[in-house]
Amino acid sequence: MNALEQMKTNLKLEIQKAVIEAGLASEENIPEVQLEVPREKAHGDLATNIAMQLASIAKKNPRQIAEEIKEKINKEKAFIKEIQVAGPGFINFFIDRSFLSEVLVEIDQTKETYGQSHRGKGKRVLVEFVSANPTGSLHLGHARGAAVGDVLCNVLEAAGYDVTREYYINDAGNQIHNMTLSLEARYKEALGLEAPFPEDGYRGQDIIQLGKQLADEEGDRLLQLDAKERYSHIRQYGLKHLLDKIKNDLKAYRVEFDSWFSEQSLHDRKAVQESIEELTRLGQTYEEDGALWLKSSRFGDDKDRVLVKRDGSYTYITPDIAYHRNKYKRGFDHIVDILGADHHGYVPRIQAAMKALGYDVDKLTFLITQMVKLYQGGELVKMSKRTGKAITLVELMEEVGVDATRYIFASRSPDSHLDFDMDLAVSQSNENPVFYVQYAYARINSVFRQAREKGFSVGLDQNHLSALQEEGEFDLLQKLAEFPEEVGVAARQMSPHRVVRYLFDLSTLFHSYYNAHRVIQEDEDLTRARLSLLVGVAQVLKNGLGMIGVSAPVKM
User: Fold this and answer.
1) How many domains does the chain have?
2) Within 13 Å, how many C-alpha atoms sit on residue 116's CB side?
């Protein structure tokens, strides 16, 4: 518990004592004290609505209750400088922020682990994300999902959860069948032969290049095999190379997985059939028109869903039910699916199936990442200039860099649409948010270099922290103290963009402070105090940037 959290705990205790001393409620009847940060700074640093909560218990007007609580609070113990009663009975607190310098000591002691906590208590969380079909390159939607998923995992780990990152490989079904037929056609074309292309085949450059590569490696040897053996060889070849490319592209994007879960493995272990049998045993299926249906409308879906078609083949949702059943059976405390914008209808179907199987759907969270629009030169970019096809993750990384791509994709709530301005992403201006945050870190390091040239040591100097008295210094200290709680809230709410927003706000406070105050000056004690403050800011910026997978450059 850092200095700010300890102060809040003390303030809550003092409020409870004041309520009891004022005779407003007994200890057993006091509602939980809630503290919030007012939207406007003029309303204080913290506020509580406890007076309104006590109105029915104390049988008094909330404003009168607030005044009585105000008179009984021990301001010194609670580090409170001033208390005001406002509106219908809000109690606003203005903190004596001198204690906040203690946060610099904590940052110095914990360094790269500052911001981490044990809030998650080691609970096991499975996060599945990206999970693109291995039939071509990753596109913008995958890029956003990868950034959101990876940052969420980092935030959850920082908050004390035991996280497993998983990629579900769709290596069974029609997509892989069509990929195999497409690759076989391109292989034959590379050998100079005419080959019919499948109607639903994949026409991208990935398959064309892979067909040429296969022809270079094998020559016409595969043509000598029988059709079944040739199909099996090409299928495995295509899967391996396309999946390897996805893995390499994600690694370049700083995203790696703990588990690569094969859909085919579910079929091989008869897990799909077992899931159908379990649903049937539980009375959750029925036959109609030659098909097997799930009674999903019983559990919140808008209609019942087909599991097995008339021809005996599975619908696309049936293996997914088996996969989610497998997730539950592995014993995770929480399961998170990060899905693309076209999966809204998918969510109630899976939830219904899990309810039908008797699982607790409160353990299952779906995050839907919305559409991305790419702009360059003020115009919407729909196609790659290089290939005439959709923009890929690799092309975006080449155009704007990994830092900017990850930062921008992680900066907004997943459920909001995102306009990605490529020109802004590469600009070295304060309008570019990733540059703005990275420049704050680089600027501090520039100050450190100047300080060393003038003979100052750069590090925490506890003996002179009392020299920090400016409002901007207290604002920075308070923001630094809020970092662990911000990470904890981001983890609990599954909102990784909160950490990105925090870094931007911290950078704004720093740039404003830097422009208003000289750090290195004739007063050596004040210089040491301000250098200590900047050491704390730099560490938190570095920790936060690392959490979102963005570099912290010392020079720009």
Assistant:
1) 4
2) 18
- Other CB atoms within 10 Å distance of the CB of residue 318: 24
- For residues 350 and 321, give the distance between their C-alpha atoms in angstroms, rounded to a whole number: 7
**Dihedral sign, CA of 488, 490, 496, 500?**
negative
Task: State whether 269 and 159 are in the same domain.
Answer: yes
Q: Are 488 and 536 in contact (CB under 8 A)?
A: no
**Last residue of one domain, picked from the residues 252, 279, 311:** 252
Q: Give pLDDT, residue 250.
A: 98
- For residue 95, how many other CB atoms are within 10 A of its CB? 21
Q: How far apart are CA 430 and CA 508, in angstroms?
A: 10
**Over the chain (556 residues), what is each successive 10-residue block's mean pLDDT?**
84 94 91 91 92 93 95 90 94 91 96 96 98 92 97 98 98 92 96 92 90 96 95 96 97 98 97 98 97 97 96 95 98 97 90 98 97 93 67 94 97 95 95 97 98 96 94 95 96 98 98 97 96 98 98 96
CATH of the domain at 286: 3.40.50.620
Q: Is residue 134 in a domain? A: yes
pLDDT given for residue 389 in this prediction: 66
Q: Are residues 145 and 280 in the same domain?
A: yes
Sign of CA dihedral 314, 316, 319, 321: negative
What pLDDT is stored for residue 386 in this prediction? 56
Residue that has been written with the tokens 């004390």 in this structure = 160
DSSP secondary structure letters along 328-367? HHTT-SEEEEEE-GGGTTHHHHHHHHHHHTT--GGGEEEE
Strand, coil or helix: 114? strand
State how far the Cα of 235 lies from the Cα of 210, in Å rounded to an integer. 12
Predicted local distance difference test score (pLDDT) of residue 77:
86
Q: Are 264 and 245 found together in one domain? A: no
Exposure class string for 183-204: b at 16+ Cβ within 10 A, else e = bbbbbbbbbeeebeebeebbeb
Is residue 519 located within the same domain as residue 492?
yes
The answer to whether residue 400 sits within a structural domain is no
- Quick check: is 363 in a domain? yes
Tell me, what's the pLDDT at 390? 78
Domain containing 515 equals 101-119+430-547
Whether 247 and 329 share a structural domain:
no
- Reading the block at residue 467, the tokens are 């020299």
Residue 150 in domain: yes
